[in-house]
Amino acid sequence: MIKSMTGFGKAEFEVNNKKITIELKALNSKQIDINARIPSVYREKEIELRKVLAEKLVRGKIDLSIYVENHGEESNSKINEPILKSYFDHLKEINAGLGLPTDQTIMQAILRLPDVVKTEHETLDEEEWQVILEHLHKATKDINDFRTREGEALEADIVSNTENIRNLLTQVAPFEAQRINTIKSRLTENLGKLNLNGNVDENRFEQELAYYLDKMDMNEEKVRLENHCIYFIETLSQPEPSGKKLSFISQEMGREINTLGSKAYESNIQRIVVQMKDHLERIKEQLLNVL
């Protein structure tokens, strides 16, 4: 069963007086492409995060966001009291010398001066990190479940278009005999127009005609296209990611369909080939989103 590369996963939880939200969004991409937006305190674990996502999600453009809302009473920003008092004493002395009053506005000015407010850098708590990692796995499971549901719809559409190609292939046979007779009549008619006054080696003409018609034979292309379609559907049912492999097979299907078109020389067969190409393009469009 195939999976879509599109998906969304989310996990919300509380730890150490913090509400943490993990969001994962995946879109289609040829390779794994991870964009991580995480708080600075978790930056040292970014490589580990990327390794988990690459292992669990395999391929796609992945956006990871971690949001932290602090519910605790303490803040990382602290007032540096010794520096604040030093500023206050200096300003009070200057005000006194200038004959200016010392009121609450001086405190507002001091709080904007350098080093009065200091921010203490938070250190990573390993127990907290293990909880985050556990919920990251939950979010990746959610996104994979989403991908599986999307994949079911993709698979149904891809199988339908593949079966349509196979059905159209069976419609080619009735027009092949007519096509051979048309080509043979056209060549004989053109040869007659050359007015060679009977100077034609009939045996040689028949040999050349047989060789030409043999080059126009479609049996090999029909057999190969049928086999590609069967292999394509078999690959769809494989448990491991098969998007790239399916793309390669679809390219081979396209080559056989194009060859059938180049050998057609018959309007009904050409119409069938055009319909095959239409279904193949729909398959290729869906494969862009297959994991």
Automatic annotation (TrEMBL):
Keywords: Endonuclease, Hydrolase, Nuclease. Residues 2-155 form the Endoribonuclease YicC-like N-terminal domain. Belongs to the YicC/YloC family. This is YicC family protein. Its cofactor is a divalent metal cation. GO terms for molecular function: hydrolase activity; RNA endonuclease activity. It comes from Mariniphaga sediminis. Residues 176-290 form the Endoribonuclease YicC-like C-terminal domain. PANTHER family: UPF0701 PROTEIN YICC. Pfam families: YicC-like_C, YicC-like_N.
